Protein backbone atom coordinates (compact mmCIF):
# COMPACT_ATOMS: atom_id res chain seq x y z
CA UNK A 1 0.00 0.00 0.00
CA UNK A 2 1.32 3.48 -0.90
CA UNK A 3 2.00 6.16 1.70
CA UNK A 4 -0.92 8.27 0.38
CA UNK A 5 -3.31 5.30 0.62
CA UNK A 6 -2.13 4.76 4.18
CA UNK A 7 -2.96 8.41 5.01
CA UNK A 8 -6.47 7.95 3.63
CA UNK A 9 -6.95 4.65 5.47
CA UNK A 10 -6.05 6.27 8.78
CA UNK A 11 -8.34 9.28 7.96
CA UNK A 12 -5.43 11.70 8.39
CA UNK A 13 -6.38 13.72 5.31
CA UNK A 14 -10.01 14.02 6.48
CA UNK A 15 -8.89 15.16 9.95
CA UNK A 16 -6.44 17.69 8.45
CA UNK A 17 -9.12 19.26 6.25
CA UNK A 18 -11.62 19.50 9.09
CA UNK A 19 -9.00 20.93 11.45
CA UNK A 20 -7.96 23.61 8.95
CA UNK A 21 -11.57 24.77 8.45
CA UNK A 22 -12.36 24.89 12.18
CA UNK A 23 -8.98 26.44 13.02
CA UNK A 24 -9.45 29.19 10.43
CA UNK A 25 -12.87 30.03 11.87
CA UNK A 26 -11.40 30.23 15.38
CA UNK A 27 -8.60 32.57 14.23
CA UNK A 28 -11.02 34.86 12.38
CA UNK A 29 -13.36 35.06 15.37
CA UNK A 30 -10.45 35.86 17.70
CA UNK A 31 -9.14 38.60 15.38
CA UNK A 32 -12.57 40.22 15.20
CA UNK A 33 -13.66 39.90 18.83
CA UNK A 34 -10.39 40.65 20.66
CA UNK A 35 -10.22 44.41 19.77
CA UNK A 36 -13.89 44.93 20.67
CA UNK A 37 -13.33 43.35 24.09
CA UNK A 38 -10.16 45.45 24.63
CA UNK A 39 -8.12 42.25 25.02
CA UNK A 40 -4.33 42.55 24.78
CA UNK A 41 -2.93 43.11 21.29
CA UNK A 42 -1.17 39.71 21.36
CA UNK A 43 -4.43 37.79 21.90
CA UNK A 44 -5.11 37.07 18.22
CA UNK A 45 -1.49 36.02 17.62
CA UNK A 46 -1.58 33.69 20.63
CA UNK A 47 -4.78 32.03 19.36
CA UNK A 48 -3.16 31.60 15.93
CA UNK A 49 -0.07 30.05 17.52
CA UNK A 50 -2.15 27.58 19.58
CA UNK A 51 -4.18 26.57 16.53
CA UNK A 52 -0.96 25.95 14.56
CA UNK A 53 0.61 23.95 17.40
CA UNK A 54 -2.54 21.85 17.63
CA UNK A 55 -2.43 20.94 13.93
CA UNK A 56 0.49 18.44 14.04
CA UNK A 57 -0.91 17.03 17.29
CA UNK A 58 -4.24 16.35 15.55
CA UNK A 59 -2.43 14.65 12.65
CA UNK A 60 -0.37 12.46 14.99
CA UNK A 61 -3.46 11.41 16.94
CA UNK A 62 -5.32 10.63 13.71
CA UNK A 63 -2.35 8.50 12.57
CA UNK A 64 -2.02 6.59 15.83
CA UNK A 65 -5.64 6.05 16.86
CA UNK A 66 -8.74 4.77 15.13
CA UNK A 67 -12.30 5.35 16.34
CA UNK A 68 -14.54 2.24 16.00
CA UNK A 69 -17.98 1.25 17.39
CA UNK A 70 -16.11 -0.65 20.07
CA UNK A 71 -14.14 2.47 21.07
CA UNK A 72 -10.73 4.01 20.36
CA UNK A 73 -7.91 1.66 19.35
CA UNK A 74 -4.35 2.00 18.22
CA UNK A 75 -4.33 1.74 14.43
CA UNK A 76 -2.56 -1.29 13.06
CA UNK A 77 0.67 -0.07 11.47
CA UNK A 78 1.49 -1.09 7.93
CA UNK A 79 3.85 1.42 6.32
CA UNK A 80 5.20 4.97 6.29
CA UNK A 81 5.36 5.79 10.03
CA UNK A 82 8.89 7.21 9.90
CA UNK A 83 8.10 9.28 6.78
CA UNK A 84 4.90 10.57 8.37
CA UNK A 85 6.65 11.83 11.52
CA UNK A 86 9.33 13.59 9.45
CA UNK A 87 6.65 15.37 7.39
CA UNK A 88 4.76 16.43 10.52
CA UNK A 89 7.95 17.82 12.05
CA UNK A 90 8.75 19.83 8.92
CA UNK A 91 5.20 21.22 8.71
CA UNK A 92 5.33 22.22 12.38
CA UNK A 93 8.67 23.98 11.99
CA UNK A 94 7.50 25.88 8.90
CA UNK A 95 4.27 26.97 10.60
CA UNK A 96 6.10 28.20 13.69
CA UNK A 97 8.61 30.12 11.60
CA UNK A 98 5.83 31.79 9.61
CA UNK A 99 3.94 32.73 12.79
CA UNK A 100 6.81 33.95 14.96
CA UNK A 101 9.12 35.63 12.46
CA UNK A 102 7.16 38.91 12.02
CA UNK A 103 6.89 39.32 15.79
CA UNK A 104 10.62 39.88 16.05
CA UNK A 105 10.59 42.89 13.75
CA UNK A 106 8.85 46.27 13.67
CA UNK A 107 5.30 46.87 12.49
CA UNK A 108 5.26 46.14 8.73
CA UNK A 109 4.91 49.27 6.64
CA UNK A 110 1.97 49.16 4.27
CA UNK A 111 2.34 50.61 0.80
CA UNK A 112 1.84 54.34 0.89
CA UNK A 113 -0.88 55.92 -1.11
CA UNK A 114 -2.13 59.11 -2.54
CA UNK A 115 -6.26 63.41 -1.28
CA UNK A 116 -8.85 63.36 -0.44
CA UNK A 117 -9.76 63.60 -2.86
CA UNK A 118 -6.97 64.50 -5.04
CA UNK A 119 -5.91 62.57 -8.11
CA UNK A 120 -2.82 63.09 -10.21
CA UNK A 121 -3.46 64.89 -13.49
CA UNK A 122 -4.10 62.83 -16.57
CA UNK A 123 -1.13 64.50 -18.22
CA UNK A 124 1.30 63.71 -15.40
CA UNK A 125 4.67 62.35 -16.42
CA UNK A 126 5.32 58.65 -15.88
CA UNK A 127 7.14 57.63 -12.72
CA UNK A 128 10.81 58.49 -12.86
CA UNK A 129 13.82 56.78 -11.44
CA UNK A 130 15.01 57.68 -7.98
CA UNK A 131 17.73 59.86 -9.49
CA UNK A 132 15.04 62.16 -10.89
CA UNK A 133 14.57 63.66 -7.43
CA UNK A 134 18.20 64.65 -6.95
CA UNK A 135 17.40 68.27 -7.77
CA UNK A 136 15.40 68.66 -4.54
CA UNK A 137 17.13 70.48 -1.70
CA UNK A 138 18.69 68.27 0.96
CA UNK A 139 16.75 70.05 3.70
CA UNK A 140 13.31 69.13 2.32
CA UNK A 141 10.87 66.58 3.70
CA UNK A 142 7.28 65.43 3.26
CA UNK A 143 5.22 63.69 5.93
CA UNK A 144 2.80 61.20 4.41
CA UNK A 145 -0.43 60.23 6.19
CA UNK A 146 0.23 57.45 8.68
CA UNK A 147 -1.68 54.25 7.98
CA UNK A 148 -4.27 53.00 10.45
CA UNK A 149 -3.35 49.42 11.42
CA UNK A 150 -6.04 49.16 14.10
CA UNK A 151 -9.11 46.98 13.73
CA UNK A 152 -11.38 50.00 14.20
CA UNK A 153 -11.56 52.05 10.97
CA UNK A 154 -12.47 55.16 12.99
CA UNK A 155 -8.87 55.23 14.22
CA UNK A 156 -7.83 56.52 10.79
CA UNK A 157 -8.43 60.03 12.17
CA UNK A 158 -6.07 59.32 15.04
CA UNK A 159 -3.38 57.84 12.77
CA UNK A 160 -3.49 60.71 10.29
CA UNK A 161 -3.72 63.20 13.14
CA UNK A 162 -0.40 61.94 14.51
CA UNK A 163 1.18 62.49 11.09
CA UNK A 164 -0.29 66.02 10.98
CA UNK A 165 1.15 66.77 14.41
CA UNK A 166 4.59 65.60 13.32
CA UNK A 167 4.34 67.69 10.16
CA UNK A 168 3.56 70.80 12.22
CA UNK A 169 6.41 70.08 14.63
CA UNK A 170 8.91 69.61 11.79
CA UNK A 171 7.67 72.79 10.08
CA UNK A 172 8.99 74.66 13.13
CA UNK A 173 12.50 73.19 12.86
CA UNK A 174 14.93 75.87 11.73
CA UNK A 175 16.28 75.21 8.24
CA UNK A 176 13.91 72.34 7.41
CA UNK A 177 11.48 72.85 4.51
CA UNK A 178 8.34 70.78 4.94
CA UNK A 179 5.89 70.03 2.13
CA UNK A 180 2.39 71.21 2.92
CA UNK A 181 -0.09 68.95 4.61
CA UNK A 182 -2.63 69.04 1.80
CA UNK A 183 -0.18 68.14 -0.95
CA UNK A 184 1.49 65.39 1.08
CA UNK A 185 -1.84 63.93 2.19
CA UNK A 186 -3.10 63.92 -1.40
CA UNK A 187 -1.18 60.64 -1.77
CA UNK A 188 -3.62 58.89 0.54
CA UNK A 189 -5.28 55.83 -0.98
CA UNK A 190 -3.03 55.13 -3.96
CA UNK A 191 0.06 52.96 -4.31
CA UNK A 192 2.27 55.75 -5.59
CA UNK A 193 6.00 54.89 -5.60
CA UNK A 194 8.08 56.90 -3.16
CA UNK A 195 10.32 58.36 -5.92
CA UNK A 196 7.27 59.68 -7.74
CA UNK A 197 5.89 61.22 -4.55
CA UNK A 198 9.26 62.87 -3.93
CA UNK A 199 9.29 64.24 -7.48
CA UNK A 200 5.75 65.59 -7.24
CA UNK A 201 6.44 67.27 -3.89
CA UNK A 202 10.02 68.29 -4.74
CA UNK A 203 11.49 66.82 -1.55
CA UNK A 204 14.57 64.76 -0.74
CA UNK A 205 13.17 62.94 2.30
CA UNK A 206 9.91 61.13 3.06
CA UNK A 207 8.54 60.25 6.50
CA UNK A 208 5.96 57.49 6.49
CA UNK A 209 4.49 55.37 9.22
CA UNK A 210 1.66 53.38 10.73
CA UNK A 211 -0.32 53.51 13.95
CA UNK A 212 -1.90 50.61 15.81
CA UNK A 213 -4.09 51.48 18.76
CA UNK A 214 -5.25 48.94 21.31
CA UNK A 215 -7.22 50.27 24.26
CA UNK A 216 -4.98 52.71 26.12
CA UNK A 217 -1.84 51.58 24.29
CA UNK A 218 -0.50 52.80 20.97
CA UNK A 219 2.16 51.41 18.67
CA UNK A 220 3.69 53.87 16.19
CA UNK A 221 6.14 52.74 13.54
CA UNK A 222 7.91 55.46 11.55
CA UNK A 223 10.69 55.47 8.99
CA UNK A 224 12.64 58.19 7.23
CA UNK A 225 13.62 57.57 3.60
CA UNK A 226 16.28 59.44 1.64
CA UNK A 227 14.73 59.34 -1.82
CA UNK A 228 17.81 59.99 -3.96
CA UNK A 229 19.51 56.77 -2.83
CA UNK A 230 16.34 55.02 -1.61
CA UNK A 231 18.04 54.64 1.77
CA UNK A 232 16.23 54.16 5.07
CA UNK A 233 18.01 56.70 7.24
CA UNK A 234 16.06 55.83 10.36
CA UNK A 235 13.27 53.52 11.47
CA UNK A 236 11.83 52.80 14.88
CA UNK A 237 8.75 51.43 16.60
CA UNK A 238 7.34 53.08 19.73
CA UNK A 239 4.94 51.24 22.03
CA UNK A 240 3.58 53.52 24.73
CA UNK A 241 0.57 54.45 26.80
CA UNK A 242 -1.65 57.05 25.15
CA UNK A 243 -0.81 59.53 27.90
CA UNK A 244 2.72 59.64 26.48
CA UNK A 245 1.59 60.53 22.95
CA UNK A 246 3.18 64.00 22.98
CA UNK A 247 6.47 62.60 24.24
CA UNK A 248 6.46 60.06 21.39
CA UNK A 249 5.91 62.87 18.88
CA UNK A 250 8.88 64.71 20.36
CA UNK A 251 11.07 61.59 20.19
CA UNK A 252 10.18 60.95 16.54
CA UNK A 253 10.85 64.56 15.55
CA UNK A 254 14.13 64.56 17.48
CA UNK A 255 15.17 61.33 15.77
CA UNK A 256 14.47 62.85 12.35
CA UNK A 257 16.50 65.98 13.04
CA UNK A 258 19.24 63.76 14.38
CA UNK A 259 19.26 61.73 11.15
CA UNK A 260 19.53 65.01 9.20
CA UNK A 261 22.13 66.66 11.46
CA UNK A 262 24.64 66.89 8.61
CA UNK A 263 22.17 69.14 6.78
CA UNK A 264 20.44 70.95 9.66
CA UNK A 265 23.12 70.95 12.32
CA UNK A 266 22.31 69.92 15.87
CA UNK A 267 18.69 70.72 16.71
CA UNK A 268 16.67 70.29 19.88
CA UNK A 269 12.97 69.60 19.46
CA UNK A 270 10.54 70.29 22.28
CA UNK A 271 6.83 69.45 22.14
CA UNK A 272 4.40 70.86 24.67
CA UNK A 273 1.22 68.91 25.38
CA UNK A 274 -1.67 70.69 23.67
CA UNK A 275 -4.09 69.31 26.23
CA UNK A 276 -4.08 66.93 29.16
CA UNK A 277 -7.48 65.53 28.15
CA UNK A 278 -6.90 62.61 25.77
CA UNK A 279 -10.56 62.38 24.74
CA UNK A 280 -10.54 66.06 23.84
CA UNK A 281 -7.32 65.51 21.89
CA UNK A 282 -8.80 62.60 19.90
CA UNK A 283 -11.90 64.57 18.98
CA UNK A 284 -9.67 67.50 17.99
CA UNK A 285 -7.67 65.27 15.64
CA UNK A 286 -10.90 63.99 14.10
CA UNK A 287 -12.41 67.46 13.70
CA UNK A 288 -9.24 68.95 12.25
CA UNK A 289 -8.92 66.12 9.73
CA UNK A 290 -12.50 66.61 8.57
CA UNK A 291 -11.91 70.35 8.27
CA UNK A 292 -8.81 69.87 6.13
CA UNK A 293 -10.61 67.42 3.88
CA UNK A 294 -13.72 69.63 3.77
CA UNK A 295 -15.94 66.61 4.46
CA UNK A 296 -18.61 66.12 7.14
CA UNK A 297 -18.06 69.70 8.29
CA UNK A 298 -21.05 69.73 10.63
CA UNK A 299 -19.51 66.73 12.38
CA UNK A 300 -16.14 68.49 12.39
CA UNK A 301 -17.69 71.45 14.22
CA UNK A 302 -19.28 69.06 16.73
CA UNK A 303 -15.94 67.32 17.32
CA UNK A 304 -14.14 70.61 17.89
CA UNK A 305 -16.88 71.95 20.17
CA UNK A 306 -16.57 68.78 22.25
CA UNK A 307 -12.81 69.35 22.51
CA UNK A 308 -13.09 72.93 23.77
CA UNK A 309 -15.90 72.05 26.16
CA UNK A 310 -13.70 69.37 27.70
CA UNK A 311 -10.65 71.67 27.84
CA UNK A 312 -11.38 75.40 27.76
CA UNK A 313 -7.65 76.11 27.46
CA UNK A 314 -7.14 74.04 24.28
CA UNK A 315 -6.00 76.87 21.96
CA UNK A 316 -5.64 74.87 18.73
CA UNK A 317 -9.09 73.36 19.12
CA UNK A 318 -10.55 76.87 19.49
CA UNK A 319 -8.66 77.99 16.37
CA UNK A 320 -9.93 75.16 14.19
CA UNK A 321 -13.44 75.52 15.60
CA UNK A 322 -13.29 79.09 14.35
CA UNK A 323 -11.95 77.98 10.96
CA UNK A 324 -14.58 75.28 10.43
CA UNK A 325 -17.39 77.58 11.57
CA UNK A 326 -16.15 80.26 9.15
CA UNK A 327 -15.92 78.12 6.01
CA UNK A 328 -19.39 76.65 6.64
CA UNK A 329 -21.00 79.89 7.78
CA UNK A 330 -19.62 81.76 4.78
CA UNK A 331 -21.87 79.71 2.52
CA UNK A 332 -19.42 77.51 0.67
CA UNK A 333 -20.52 74.13 2.09
CA UNK A 334 -23.85 72.45 2.92
CA UNK A 335 -24.95 72.52 6.54
CA UNK A 336 -27.88 71.91 8.87
CA UNK A 337 -26.67 74.75 11.11
CA UNK A 338 -27.58 78.44 11.11
CA UNK A 339 -24.97 80.24 9.00
CA UNK A 340 -25.28 83.61 10.75
CA UNK A 341 -24.78 81.93 14.12
CA UNK A 342 -21.76 80.07 12.76
CA UNK A 343 -20.13 83.31 11.63
CA UNK A 344 -20.62 84.78 15.11
CA UNK A 345 -19.20 81.60 16.67
CA UNK A 346 -16.22 81.74 14.30
CA UNK A 347 -15.26 85.18 15.60
CA UNK A 348 -15.73 84.16 19.24
CA UNK A 349 -13.66 81.00 18.78
CA UNK A 350 -10.80 82.75 16.97
CA UNK A 351 -10.67 85.47 19.63
CA UNK A 352 -10.60 82.88 22.42
CA UNK A 353 -7.75 81.06 20.64
CA UNK A 354 -5.77 84.29 20.37
CA UNK A 355 -6.28 84.99 24.07
CA UNK A 356 -4.58 81.65 24.74
CA UNK A 357 -1.92 81.98 22.01
CA UNK A 358 -1.61 85.44 20.38
CA UNK A 359 0.54 84.11 17.51
CA UNK A 360 -1.60 81.12 16.49
CA UNK A 361 -1.60 81.32 12.69
CA UNK A 362 -4.98 79.66 12.09
CA UNK A 363 -6.77 81.92 14.55
CA UNK A 364 -5.10 85.04 13.12
CA UNK A 365 -6.16 84.04 9.62
CA UNK A 366 -9.78 83.32 10.59
CA UNK A 367 -10.20 86.58 12.48
CA UNK A 368 -8.47 88.44 9.65
CA UNK A 369 -10.89 86.97 7.11
CA UNK A 370 -13.88 87.85 9.25
CA UNK A 371 -12.75 91.44 9.81
CA UNK A 372 -11.87 91.94 6.14
CA UNK A 373 -15.52 91.28 5.33
CA UNK A 374 -16.81 93.65 8.03
CA UNK A 375 -18.79 96.85 7.54
CA UNK A 376 -16.05 99.39 8.30
CA UNK A 377 -12.84 100.52 6.65
CA UNK A 378 -10.99 100.18 9.95
CA UNK A 379 -12.05 96.54 10.29
CA UNK A 380 -10.91 95.74 6.74
CA UNK A 381 -7.51 97.31 7.43
CA UNK A 382 -7.21 95.41 10.72
CA UNK A 383 -8.24 92.18 8.99
CA UNK A 384 -5.48 92.64 6.43
CA UNK A 385 -2.93 93.25 9.19
CA UNK A 386 -3.96 90.03 10.93
CA UNK A 387 -3.77 88.09 7.67
CA UNK A 388 -0.31 89.53 7.03
CA UNK A 389 0.80 88.34 10.47
CA UNK A 390 -0.65 84.89 9.86
CA UNK A 391 0.93 84.63 6.39
CA UNK A 392 4.34 85.57 7.81
CA UNK A 393 4.27 82.67 10.29
CA UNK A 394 6.28 79.56 9.37
CA UNK A 395 3.63 76.97 8.63
CA UNK A 396 2.99 73.95 6.43
CA UNK A 397 -0.57 75.25 5.99
CA UNK A 398 -0.96 77.72 3.11
CA UNK A 399 -4.47 78.91 4.04
CA UNK A 400 -3.34 82.27 5.47
CA UNK A 401 -1.41 83.21 2.32
CA UNK A 402 -4.26 82.07 0.10
CA UNK A 403 -6.86 84.04 2.08
CA UNK A 404 -4.68 87.15 2.11
CA UNK A 405 -4.27 86.97 -1.65
CA UNK A 406 -8.02 86.46 -2.08
CA UNK A 407 -8.84 89.57 -0.03
CA UNK A 408 -6.41 91.68 -2.05
CA UNK A 409 -7.99 90.44 -5.31
CA UNK A 410 -11.47 91.35 -4.10
CA UNK A 411 -10.24 94.83 -3.16
CA UNK A 412 -8.81 95.28 -6.68
CA UNK A 413 -5.09 95.01 -5.86
CA UNK A 414 -3.96 91.98 -7.85
CA UNK A 415 -0.29 93.01 -7.71
CA UNK A 416 -0.42 92.78 -3.90
CA UNK A 417 -2.21 89.43 -4.13
CA UNK A 418 0.23 87.72 -6.47
CA UNK A 419 3.21 87.11 -4.12
CA UNK A 420 0.95 85.41 -1.57
CA UNK A 421 -0.95 83.33 -4.14
CA UNK A 422 2.27 82.27 -5.88
CA UNK A 423 3.81 81.31 -2.54
CA UNK A 424 0.76 79.22 -1.61
CA UNK A 425 0.69 77.46 -4.98
CA UNK A 426 4.45 76.88 -4.93
CA UNK A 427 4.29 75.21 -1.51
CA UNK A 428 0.98 73.43 -2.11
CA UNK A 429 0.80 72.69 -5.86
CA UNK A 430 -1.57 69.75 -5.53
CA UNK A 431 -4.41 71.81 -4.05
CA UNK A 432 -7.13 72.89 -6.47
CA UNK A 433 -7.99 76.16 -4.73
CA UNK A 434 -4.36 77.36 -4.86
CA UNK A 435 -4.17 76.72 -8.59
CA UNK A 436 -7.61 78.20 -9.25
CA UNK A 437 -7.13 81.53 -7.50
CA UNK A 438 -3.63 81.99 -8.90
CA UNK A 439 -5.03 81.25 -12.36
CA UNK A 440 -7.69 83.91 -11.90
CA UNK A 441 -5.06 86.41 -10.71
CA UNK A 442 -3.03 85.77 -13.86
CA UNK A 443 -6.16 86.24 -15.99
CA UNK A 444 -6.82 89.57 -14.23
CA UNK A 445 -3.34 90.58 -15.34
CA UNK A 446 -4.22 89.65 -18.92
CA UNK A 447 -2.12 86.47 -18.79
CA UNK A 448 -4.97 84.40 -20.23
CA UNK A 449 -2.96 81.33 -21.27
CA UNK A 450 -1.31 80.94 -17.86
CA UNK A 451 -4.61 81.54 -16.12
CA UNK A 452 -6.42 78.99 -18.30
CA UNK A 453 -3.72 76.38 -17.69
CA UNK A 454 -3.93 76.76 -13.90
CA UNK A 455 -7.73 76.77 -13.87
CA UNK A 456 -7.68 73.54 -15.88
CA UNK A 457 -5.19 72.09 -13.42
CA UNK A 458 -7.62 72.97 -10.62
CA UNK A 459 -10.33 70.93 -12.34
CA UNK A 460 -7.91 68.01 -12.68
CA UNK A 461 -7.30 68.16 -8.94
CA UNK A 462 -10.91 68.68 -7.90
CA UNK A 463 -13.98 68.14 -10.09
CA UNK A 464 -15.83 70.78 -8.07
CA UNK A 465 -13.52 73.61 -9.17
CA UNK A 466 -15.19 76.71 -10.64
CA UNK A 467 -12.33 79.03 -11.71
CA UNK A 468 -12.49 77.77 -15.30
CA UNK A 469 -15.89 79.44 -15.50
CA UNK A 470 -14.56 82.77 -14.15
CA UNK A 471 -11.83 82.85 -16.77
CA UNK A 472 -14.21 81.76 -19.54
CA UNK A 473 -16.45 84.71 -18.61
CA UNK A 474 -13.49 87.07 -18.98
CA UNK A 475 -12.58 85.53 -22.34
CA UNK A 476 -16.15 85.85 -23.66
CA UNK A 477 -16.27 89.56 -22.81
CA UNK A 478 -12.81 90.01 -24.32
CA UNK A 479 -14.17 88.78 -27.65
CA UNK A 480 -12.34 85.45 -27.37
CA UNK A 481 -15.34 83.12 -27.35
CA UNK A 482 -13.56 80.29 -29.18
CA UNK A 483 -10.91 80.16 -26.45
CA UNK A 484 -13.67 80.19 -23.83
CA UNK A 485 -15.43 77.27 -25.51
CA UNK A 486 -12.21 75.27 -25.75
CA UNK A 487 -11.47 75.91 -22.09
CA UNK A 488 -14.95 74.83 -20.97
CA UNK A 489 -15.01 71.81 -23.30
CA UNK A 490 -11.67 70.57 -21.94
CA UNK A 491 -12.99 70.79 -18.37
CA UNK A 492 -16.34 69.16 -19.11
CA UNK A 493 -15.32 65.45 -18.90
CA UNK A 494 -13.76 65.97 -15.47
CA UNK A 495 -16.55 67.87 -13.73
CA UNK A 496 -18.45 66.12 -10.94
CA UNK A 497 -22.12 65.26 -11.65
CA UNK A 498 -24.39 67.83 -10.06
CA UNK A 499 -21.64 70.43 -9.75
CA UNK A 500 -21.82 73.94 -11.15
CA UNK A 501 -20.06 72.84 -14.33
CA UNK A 502 -21.30 69.26 -14.74
CA UNK A 503 -21.77 67.82 -18.21
CA UNK A 504 -25.44 68.75 -18.60
CA UNK A 505 -24.97 72.36 -17.49
CA UNK A 506 -21.90 72.80 -19.67
CA UNK A 507 -23.80 71.46 -22.68
CA UNK A 508 -26.35 74.24 -22.16
CA UNK A 509 -23.64 76.89 -21.74
CA UNK A 510 -21.73 75.75 -24.82
CA UNK A 511 -24.93 75.63 -26.86
CA UNK A 512 -25.79 79.19 -25.79
CA UNK A 513 -22.27 80.36 -26.68
CA UNK A 514 -22.61 78.73 -30.08
CA UNK A 515 -26.10 80.08 -30.75
CA UNK A 516 -26.89 83.55 -29.31
CA UNK A 517 -30.57 82.83 -29.90
CA UNK A 518 -30.53 80.35 -27.02
CA UNK A 519 -29.12 82.74 -24.45
CA UNK A 520 -32.40 84.31 -23.35
CA UNK A 521 -33.89 80.89 -22.61
CA UNK A 522 -30.73 79.84 -20.74
CA UNK A 523 -30.86 82.96 -18.57
CA UNK A 524 -34.58 82.52 -17.90
CA UNK A 525 -34.01 78.93 -16.79
CA UNK A 526 -31.23 80.01 -14.43
CA UNK A 527 -32.80 83.04 -12.71
CA UNK A 528 -32.17 83.32 -9.00
CA UNK A 529 -34.87 81.63 -6.93
CA UNK A 530 -34.38 81.49 -3.14
CA UNK A 531 -36.46 78.32 -3.05
CA UNK A 532 -33.96 76.61 -5.36
CA UNK A 533 -30.87 77.88 -3.50
CA UNK A 534 -29.28 78.61 -6.89
CA UNK A 535 -27.68 82.02 -6.26
CA UNK A 536 -24.19 80.96 -7.38
CA UNK A 537 -25.40 79.34 -10.60
CA UNK A 538 -27.63 82.32 -11.37
CA UNK A 539 -24.72 84.69 -10.77
CA UNK A 540 -22.40 82.87 -13.15
CA UNK A 541 -25.08 82.63 -15.85
CA UNK A 542 -25.80 86.37 -15.59
CA UNK A 543 -22.09 87.24 -15.73
CA UNK A 544 -21.46 85.01 -18.73
CA UNK A 545 -24.23 86.52 -20.85
CA UNK A 546 -24.21 90.02 -19.33
CA UNK A 547 -27.62 90.13 -17.69
CA UNK A 548 -26.69 93.21 -15.67
CA UNK A 549 -29.93 93.51 -13.71
CA UNK A 550 -29.65 89.88 -12.57
CA UNK A 551 -25.98 90.32 -11.65
CA UNK A 552 -26.74 93.15 -9.26
CA UNK A 553 -29.93 91.54 -7.95
CA UNK A 554 -27.96 88.48 -6.86
CA UNK A 555 -24.53 90.02 -6.28
CA UNK A 556 -24.87 91.12 -2.67
CA UNK A 557 -25.94 87.76 -1.22
CA UNK A 558 -23.89 85.25 0.75
CA UNK A 559 -21.88 83.05 -1.60
CA UNK A 560 -22.02 85.45 -4.58
CA UNK A 561 -20.31 88.58 -3.26
CA UNK A 562 -16.87 86.97 -3.60
CA UNK A 563 -17.67 86.00 -7.20
CA UNK A 564 -18.83 89.55 -8.00
CA UNK A 565 -15.83 91.26 -6.41
CA UNK A 566 -13.27 88.91 -7.98
CA UNK A 567 -14.80 88.88 -11.47
CA UNK A 568 -15.00 92.68 -11.60
CA UNK A 569 -11.23 93.03 -12.00
CA UNK A 570 -10.86 90.91 -15.14
CA UNK A 571 -9.66 93.26 -17.91
CA UNK A 572 -12.79 92.78 -20.00
CA UNK A 573 -15.26 93.47 -17.16
CA UNK A 574 -15.29 97.29 -17.20
CA UNK A 575 -19.07 97.14 -17.68
CA UNK A 576 -19.29 95.49 -14.26
CA UNK A 577 -16.80 97.47 -12.14
CA UNK A 578 -17.81 100.87 -13.56
CA UNK A 579 -21.55 100.38 -13.01
CA UNK A 580 -22.91 102.62 -10.19
CA UNK A 581 -24.62 99.56 -8.72
CA UNK A 582 -21.21 97.89 -8.25
CA UNK A 583 -19.97 100.95 -6.36
CA UNK A 584 -23.13 100.88 -4.23
CA UNK A 585 -22.45 97.26 -3.23
CA UNK A 586 -18.83 98.19 -2.43
CA UNK A 587 -20.13 101.10 -0.37
CA UNK A 588 -22.55 98.86 1.54
CA UNK A 589 -19.69 96.49 2.38
CA UNK A 590 -17.28 99.28 3.49
CA UNK A 591 -14.93 98.63 0.56
CA UNK A 592 -15.53 102.12 -0.85
CA UNK A 593 -14.67 103.62 2.55
CA UNK A 594 -11.49 101.54 2.62
CA UNK A 595 -10.58 102.87 -0.84
CA UNK A 596 -11.18 106.44 0.32
CA UNK A 597 -8.93 105.90 3.34
CA UNK A 598 -6.19 103.73 1.82
CA UNK A 599 -6.31 104.48 -1.90
CA UNK A 600 -8.18 103.17 -4.93
CA UNK A 601 -7.00 100.26 -7.11
CA UNK A 602 -4.34 101.28 -9.65
CA UNK A 603 -5.86 103.22 -12.55
CA UNK A 604 -9.21 103.74 -10.80
CA UNK A 605 -10.92 106.66 -9.07
CA UNK A 606 -14.44 107.47 -7.90
CA UNK A 607 -16.52 109.92 -9.92
CA UNK A 608 -20.04 111.30 -9.64
CA UNK A 609 -22.21 110.30 -12.58
CA UNK A 610 -25.84 111.22 -13.32
CA UNK A 611 -26.70 107.58 -12.63
CA UNK A 612 -24.83 107.63 -9.32
CA UNK A 613 -21.32 107.52 -7.90
CA UNK A 614 -19.15 104.98 -9.70
CA UNK A 615 -15.61 103.93 -10.47
CA UNK A 616 -13.74 105.34 -13.42
CA UNK A 617 -11.01 102.81 -14.24
CA UNK A 618 -9.89 104.22 -17.58
CA UNK A 619 -6.27 103.84 -16.43
CA UNK A 620 -6.77 100.28 -15.18
CA UNK A 621 -5.60 97.19 -17.00
CA UNK A 622 -2.64 95.06 -17.95
Largest sheet: 6 strands, mixed
**Alpha carbon gap, first and last residue:** 97 Å
What's the CATH H-level superfamily name of the domain at 130-273?
Answer: TolB, N-terminal domain
- Give Rg in angstroms: 31 Å
Q: Name the CATH class of the domain at 130-273.
A: Alpha Beta
Number of strands: 10
Q: Report the average pLDDT across residues.
A: 84
Overall SS class: alpha/beta
* CATH fold category name of the domain at 130-273: Rossmann fold
CATH architecture of the domain at 130-273: 3-Layer(aba) Sandwich
Tally of alpha and pi helices: 29
Give the amount of beta strand, in percent.
5-15%
The oligomeric state is single chain
Question: Which runs of at least 5 residues are low in confidence (pLDDT < 50)?
Answer: 99-132
The outline comes out as: elongated
Helix content: 55-70%
Describe this structure in words.
By secondary structure, this protein is of the alpha/beta class. Among the domains are: 3-104, no CATH class; 130-273, Rossmann fold (3-Layer(aba) Sandwich), CATH 3.40.50.10070; 430-565, Serine Threonine Protein Phosphatase 5, Tetratricopeptide repeat; 578-622, no CATH class. It is built from 29 helices and ten strands. The strands form three sheets. Strands 3, 4, 5, 6, 7 and 8 form a six-stranded mixed beta sheet that branches. Strands 1-2 form a two-stranded antiparallel ribbon. Strand 9 (605-609) and strand 10 form a beta hairpin. Helix 13 crosses helix 14. The model is unreliable at 99-132 (pLDDT under 50).
Amino acid sequence: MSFFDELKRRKVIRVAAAYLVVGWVIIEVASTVAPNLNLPEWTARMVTLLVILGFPLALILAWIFEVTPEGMHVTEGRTGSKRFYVIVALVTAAALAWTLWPASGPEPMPAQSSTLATTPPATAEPPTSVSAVDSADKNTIAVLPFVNMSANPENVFFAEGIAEELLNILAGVDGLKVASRTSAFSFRGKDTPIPEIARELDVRHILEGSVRRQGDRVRITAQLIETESDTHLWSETFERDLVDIFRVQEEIAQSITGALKDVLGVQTVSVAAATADLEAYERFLRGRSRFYQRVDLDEAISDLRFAVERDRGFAEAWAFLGAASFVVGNGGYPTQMDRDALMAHALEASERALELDPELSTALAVKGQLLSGSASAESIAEGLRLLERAAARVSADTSARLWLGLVWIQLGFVERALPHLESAQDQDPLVAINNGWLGLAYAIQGRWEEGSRLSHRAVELSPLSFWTYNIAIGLVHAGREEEAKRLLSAAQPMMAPGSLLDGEKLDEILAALEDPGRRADFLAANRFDPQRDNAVGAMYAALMFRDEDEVFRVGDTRGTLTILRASAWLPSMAWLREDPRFYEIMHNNAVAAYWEAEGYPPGCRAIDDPAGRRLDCSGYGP
